[in-house]
Amino acid sequence: MPEWIRIFLDPNARWILLGCMLLGLSSGVIGSFSYLRKQSLMGDALSHAALPGVCIAFMLSGSKSILLFLIGAAAAGFLATFGIGYITRHTRIKQDAALAIVLSVFFGFGTVLLTHIQHSGNSNQSGLDKFLFGQAASMVQSDVIIMALISVVLIGICCLLYKEFKLLSFDPGFARGLGYPVALLDQLIMFLMVVAVVVGIQAVGIVLMAALLITPAVSARYWTERLGVMVILSGLFGALSGLAGTYVSAGGSNLPTGPLTVLAATALFLVSMAFAPKRGLASKLILRRAARQSYLQDQLKVAAALKQSERRMPSE
Fold it and tell me: What's the chain's Rg over C-alpha atoms?
């Protein structure tokens, strides 16, 4: 039996594999719309904003309940979204600056709370810092079932509202003119991003979740000009990243699955950037060389024609 199949005969490895692939799939799909709307930093801000939510949920409950952590992270993510929107609408601060402000404030506050918890003497706090970088190995069957349900809901909403999200991504002014509730759709995409980030925290961690949200979408953009194909490719790249990360981690490398999944997504990005048709570096190099050769041949033809015409001119 091949070694790569033997690895996944372990039930725990199978659950981790399924969870990481579902996480990559749903993150890639919703990340496509975020990337096209030039909100790549939004996922970063939302994931970092989740840290104080996790800490407050632990301080209030005194237990490491995944469900309570997810509720706390979601509440903090929504608060961060509201803060970014308020700063952007009511001040002259641009959105990228508002994202940086909210990201740093929430992550700083979360770090303070985490340090306070670690020095509080609470015997139940061990392992809480795993949420920073994720701990996919701790996923069990119930976690994967929750991931699967949420992934189906996220992908289903994106499929049902594909036309609306497409208009919102490329021309929100035109969508508003057609009577679409642009503000509501905008908040809905934010909500889906918050849910995707919260679901991925356990596997990938707060720090790296934004990479899994955006990197597959950027990779997919290299391969196609059509949004539908890009969304499918992005989800596929995310799922492949989860598969590769779990395989390397389960193969005895003793390395964490979440960071390996992000590294696999980065490898796919590098391959896309180098070899994608039309947009890839190799393709551009070939086209540039062909254009240069064509230009040189044209110049040689012009020079030959001029030389021939000079020979035919009558002498004075």
Answer: 25
Q: Any alpha helices (H) in 161-280, and if so which ranges?
A: 162-170, 172-177, 182-204, 209-223, 227-248, 257-275
CA 179, chain centre distance (Å): 30
Q: From 96, 102, 195, 183, select the one nearest 151 (Cα to Cα).
A: 195
The pLDDT assigned to 48 comes to 80
Q: Amino acid identity of 28?
A: G
Roughly how many angstroms between the first and final C-alpha of the chain, as a whole number? 91
Q: Identity (one letter) of the amino acid at 214?
A: I
pTM given for the model: 0.81
> What is d(CA 105, CA 48) in angstroms, rounded to the nearest whole number?
9
The whole-angstrom separation of Cα 199 and Cα 277 is 34
Phi, then psi, of 119 in degrees rounded to 5: -100, 10
Q: pLDDT tens across 132-142, in order? A: 667 777 777 77
